[in-house]
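Section 4.2 – Deliverable D4.2 (structural model, holo form)

The reporting period included a commitment to supply a predicted holo structure for the target in complex with N-acetyl-L-glutamyl 5-phosphate. Inputs used:
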Amino acid sequence: MRWILTQLVAYAGLIVSAVEVYGRCYRTIQYPDSQVNRLEITPDKRFLAAAGNPHIRLFDVNSNSPHPVISYDSHTSNVMAVGFQCDGNWMYSGSEDGTVKIWDLRTATCQREYESRAAVNTVVLHPNQKELISGDQNGNIRVWDLAANSCSCELVPEVDTAVRSLTVMWDGSMVVAANNRGTCYVWRLLKGTQTMTYFEPLHKLQAHDGYILKCLLSPEFCDPNRYLATASSDHTVKIWNVDGFTLERVLTGHQRWVWDCVFSVDGAYLITASSDTTARLWAMSTGETIRIVLLDLRRHRSAARTLRSLKYSGGSSGKRRVKLETRNLNMSSMIGGSVSVEFGCLRKYEVRRLSARKRSGRMVSVRASVASSPNTLELSKANAKQAEKMVRVGVLGASGYTGAEIVRLLANHPHFGITLMTADRKAGQSIGSVFPHLITQELPNMVAVKDADFSNVDAVFCCLPHGTTQEIIKGLPKGLKIVDLSADFRLRDINEYEEWYGLPHKAPELQKEAVYGLTEVLRGEIQNARLVANPGCYPTSIQLPLIPLIKAHLIEPRNIIIDAKSGVSGAGRGAKEAHLYTEIAEGLHSYGITKHRHVPEIEQGLSDASNSKITVSFTPHLMPMSRGMQSTIYVEMAPGVKVDDLYEHLNNTYQGEEFVRLLEKGVVPHTRHVRGSNYCLMNVFQDRIPGRAIIISVIDNLGCSTSHCFLRVICMPEGRNDASYILSM
Ligand SMILES: NC(=O)C1=CN([C@@H]2O[C@H](COP(=O)(O)OP(=O)(O)OC[C@H]3O[C@@H](n4cnc5c(N)ncnc54)[C@H](OP(=O)(O)O)[C@@H]3O)[C@@H](O)[C@H]2O)C=CC1
Ligand SMILES: CC(=O)N[C@@H](CCC(=O)OP(=O)(O)O)C(=O)O
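Output (structure tokens):
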């Protein structure tokens, strides 16, 4: 038997590696400008579709050309689902942009588009080839009747619980939807009178405690036995007997989330793919692992999202089966998300005959190429515990104020493990000895940046002083996702950086790819960025209220006056005379008047919002408090605009945002109310001078700004609070 594993890596760079069962990668295809979420092979096995962001690209399976044959370009966000009509005449896709599309394969034109109104996570084609079924992030399942060209049915099994995966029985008799709460909903599919297919509720199955990332019904050749496989974030895959939905087996062995699974054509095997960087082949008869393939992620440690999906390209598509062409178990691969394993497709009788004749040979071949286990096994005990988590994080500058804050927020997080921490003067020390509140955490000791090993790191928080950061980031492995807390990559114009920071820019090339990490404003761009420049504390508190008001032309872009105050921790932990207790306590003072380094950052963000150059008067003050920040902003309203309009607009803008809150009218935000939190609280008041308004915005400089783009998402409510979402941020 020969398998092909195809592996996709989520971030820029490598995407598809095809791996034979012998463990040898025989082809790698680059998809340099996006992550890849899903792969699928055409029914004729000639082309591989890779769903990225926001495009889908088709590669010739049998060619060595690194270039796609064609690109499908009209989605505007991550494409999460892709598949083909059984004759390969058209392709369907579903995207986080909230649409399901149908494409003419040859001309790459979008023939139809259906609005789902929420990010689409999964789409399947009914075996009748006439209905698409989609599942979305808000928990809706919709049936799109292709003949009527409309949505013929809408089901909401659990409100606001993301539908992660859908699967239809090969004969079109049943559909299963799996969700983020570990629940499967099963419907019997009946021929409808008004609509093509009628969904009759059949069963509700609490399959896992964690998320179900993939559910899959067994193929035709498995009959009369029928199984449902569910792959979960709890590291297991469960096999359910569809007859009564009793638990048949629990497949244990993966060390991290299991993203995908696929049955062999005869249903005798299951292949699973996990973020532990392995794919496993399981015998359905015993539930044992026959083979583990280590997917080569050495260069792509950041790709926890990598091993998303396995798919089996052979077999039937219901009654209208795809052309069956191979006699032995050759596979034309396909994938979804990241990994695809493929067996060839055989007629039913051929499978039976072959499995009887060749099974032993197949087993030998499989056993012979068991791969070694991942590097995580070599880690120390503390590290190993952290490395088991979904995303492995390195904190550079963990002995500083912001670094410690990130360690505090991540140390007990279910999906994030801290596998590396660095310090400068404190290199060699434990985090508990520097910050005793972290003494109970099992974390690795801090090391100097030059001694850091990034082989078990997926993402890095760089909490180093500005000026030191550019060169350090330049030297980091290219596959890492980086959130830089310093100011070193915030200014697009490097001349401005040099002018305001008085330093030469040492990584102009990297500057071009850096994305400014103000989540509420630039979430889409941040999702695709490798290097995110976390906003400064003052700019965070100022831009969050002003950007929406400027964009909506509710305030004048001139005469903006900002009076801002910061706690002393804003200056970092390094010893400076100006920050001694005796210099700070019992008084306040202004600093950086007209020349504070945050001015160009604030003006950059506001100018982008207005599409014209905005200048501001900004004066920061140091307050005798350890943490907290207030910006009091005086603005001129546009003609005819009232304070209530500003209020309503901010209210609407931030309604869906967890961490930005507009207080009740008249309520004054206090820095004490946000201490230790991620929140930005704001309010808007009428000035006594007609036509002017006063905006007050408070944050915790160490909480809100430190953690702005990344941690805000980590702390998102259920549904978005998962590592895959964060890695795609
Ligand atoms: N404080 C705040 O409110 C905010 C700060 N920021 C930015 O975040 C970054 C970190 O700030 P903060 O945590 O306050 O700073 P700290 O001074 O508290 O910490 C700096 C960290 O960097 C390490 N470090 C210092 N110099 C070097 C060097 N040359 N090479 C390698 N490591 C070094 C220090 O190690 P050691 O302790 O061993 O010397 C320490 O771990 C800064 O760029 C800051 O501008 C961003 C948002 C808010
Ligand atoms: C009190 C104090 O000194 N604050 C710092 C800013 C702190 C901050 O968070 O700015 P960055 O994110 O750019 O480091 C200052 O005024 O320079």
